[in-house]
Write a structure and sequence with these properties.
Layout: E1 7-11, H1 15-27, E2 32-36, H2 40-51, E3 61-64, E4 75-78, H3 90-109, E5 116-119, H4 124-135, E6 142-144, H5 148-162, E7 169-170, E8 173-174, E9 182-183, E10 189-190, E11 193-194, H6 195-201, H7 208-230, H8 235-249, E12 254-262, E13 271-280, E14 283-287, H9 294-313
Parallel strand pairs: 1-2, 1-4, 2-3, 4-5, 5-6
Antiparallel strand pairs: 7-10, 8-9, 10-11, 12-13, 13-14
Helix pairs in contact: 1-8, 3-4, 5-7
């Protein structure tokens, strides 16, 4: 990247933004962390709290500022937005956050030059698309956090079921970050072995398909359970954002299921959706077209159409 000392700006100092700032400080990945929030006192308070722990962490410049601080940032991470209220429809939530982004994105792009914009606010696929259209930036520089966290949850739960290190599991959840997401079982492996074969041979499971379906249901419902229990998810998404940021800043060429604009993937175009992509210091270098089963292709098309229909509903 252009900086010897990477700079990351976080727009939104709520649960996710502040937890990401904390995880980022501990990681030592960035040497400059900026918090922007409409509640300036909140942003300053979070920075004060973080700075008081710097003697236990890596040397980092942490401060609150306005949008002008986006200048020269390597990555601008957008966590700002409203959460879904009881009784509020998904469409109403989308409209509310699109309205926020209509004001927010121009404030950011006024100052950035070669920054990568990393969108986290939900519904992340829709807002990644909105950010792309409003900013006019090349699609490689607009990334949504997508199903990176969903995939991590999947690997964790598989590891718990079959008592194997999650690092030896390769599996993805793709599609919408939401109810229509899908696991790619046809490409999933444990220790290089097809997951169903591994389960039948080493885990002695005779009905692995049912068990894998059960695992996926738990993954899909995990966020709802966490939110019901504690009000928000923040730790695991923050760590996911550290991983994505690391892939960008260290030019890792990591393959991550981020939300990105796709063109003619299984016949689908002009939608931001999660698909494994090579992420490096240019953002999304390219996406990887998996060899999906016929059923998985149908589910992916269903997921993409759900997003496209939502975009039509908000007349964007």
């Amino acid at each position: 990247m252009k900086h010897l000392e990477p700079k990351i700006v976080i727009v939104g100092a709520g649960n996710v933004g502040s937890t990401f700032a904390f995880a980022l400080m501990i990681s030592g990945l960035a040497r400059e962390i900026v918090l922007i929030d409409k509640n300036d006192a909140l942003a300053k308070g979070e920075c004060m709290d973080l700075n008081h722990g710097l003697s236990f962490a890596h040397p980092t410049k942490i401060y609150a500022a306005g949008f002008e601080s986006c200048k020269d940032a390597d990555i601008v991470v957008i966590t700002a937005g409203t959460n879904q209220k009881p009784g509020q429809s998904r469409t109403d939530l989308v409209k509310a956050n699109v309205s926020i982004f209509r004001e927010l994105i121009p404030e950011i792009t006024k100052y950035v030059t070669n920054s990568i914009l990393l969108v986290v606010t939900n519904p992340v696929d829709i807002l990644t698309y909105v950010t792309l259209k409003i900013s006019g930036f090349p699609s490689n520089r607009i990334i949504g956090s997508g199903t990176v966290l969903d995939t991590a949850r999947l690997k964790y739960m598989i590891s718990e079921y079959y008592k194997v290190d999650a690092s030896n599991i390769h599996a993805y959840i793709i599609g919408e970050h939401g109810d229509t997401e899908l696991p790619v079982w046809s490409n999933a492996t444990i220790g290089g072995m097809d997951i169903e074969t591994y389960c039948s041979v080493y885990a002695r499971k005779t009905n692995s398909k049912n068990e894998l379906a059960e695992i996926f249901e738990k993954v899909k419902n995990a966020a709802y359970q966490i939110i019901q229990a504690k009000g928000a998810t923040n730790y695991s998404i923050a760590l996911s954002l550290v991983k994505i940021s690391q892939a960008i800043l260290r030019n890792e060429n990591s393959i991550l299921p981020v939300s990105t604009l796709i063109t003619d993937v299984y016949g689908i175009s002009d939608v931001c959706i999660s698909i494994p992509a090579i992420v490096n210091n240019s953002g999304v270098e390219k996406y990887v077209k998996l060899n999906l089963s016929n059923q998985e292709q149908k589910l992916f098309l269903h997921s993409a159409n759900a997003l496209k229909n939502l975009i039509k509903e908000i007349n964007f």
